[in-house]
Amino acid sequence: MAPSVQWRSYMLQPRPSAVALALPQRATDPALWTRPALPRPLLRPPSTRAQWIELMLGLTLVLNLIDAVLTLLFVRAGLAAEANPLMQELLERGPFAFVLGKLLIVSLGATLLWRCRQRTLSFAGALMALVTYGLTFAWHLHGITQL
Fold first, then answer.
1. How far apart are CA 116 and CA 97, in angstroms?
2. Among 32-41, 104-113, 121-130, 136-145, which stretch is predicted with the lowest mean pLDDT?
3. Are 82 and 71 in contact (CB under 8 A)?
4. Which end of the chain has fewer CB atoms < 10 Å from its terminal CB, N or C?
5. Per-residue CA distances from 92 to 20, 33, 66, 147 (Å)
6. What's the domain range around 123?
7. Residue 83: inside a domain, yes or no?
8. At residue 134, what are phi and psi to the nearest 5 degrees?
């Protein structure tokens, strides 16, 4: 073969780009392209139930924060007393301990419900928590008129 023909055949071969050199073998090897990169359950879009649970737990956490602030306000105004013995103990230690403890306890419960979100019972638990804090918020709104 003449040197010019060898040179031309070399020029016709595809050269790897800088991107291809940086990619792992899985991305550059055509034989591996048909294998999924992630297990199938991780590729599914989130279910409607998971989205509802996320919304309910987010609202529950917001209502919990509002409940903590309004409870502090009512207790300091002398309009209410904390009925929960654990929260009463935290309230006696100070407002920061009360709010931190309240947020921590409810956040741990919300985390547990979120981790079990594939179960129907988790949906029911998130709904019950939201309804409970919604009713507590309504009770606080009723009490605001007395301030």
1. 29
2. 32-41
3. yes
4. N
5. 64, 63, 19, 22
6. 48-144
7. yes
8. -65, -45
* Helices (runs of H) and strands (runs of E) counted in the chain: 8, 0
More confident residue, 86 or 34: 86
Which residue carries 């709904």 as its tokens? 127
Given this model, what pLDDT does residue 88 score? 94
* Region of residue 21 (left: phi > 0; alpha: psi -120 to 50; beta: else): alpha
Which tokens is 31 given?
């034989």
- 128 inside domain: yes
- Unique residue bearing structure tokens 């023909």: 5
Please give the Cα distance from 133 to 15 (Å, whole number): 63
Question: What is the token pair recorded at 130?
Answer: 């939201």
Q: How many Å apart are CA 67 and CA 36, to the nearest integer?
A: 47
Instruction: Report the alpha-carbon distance of residue 137 to residue 71 in Å, rounded.
Output: 10
Structural domain count, the chain: 1
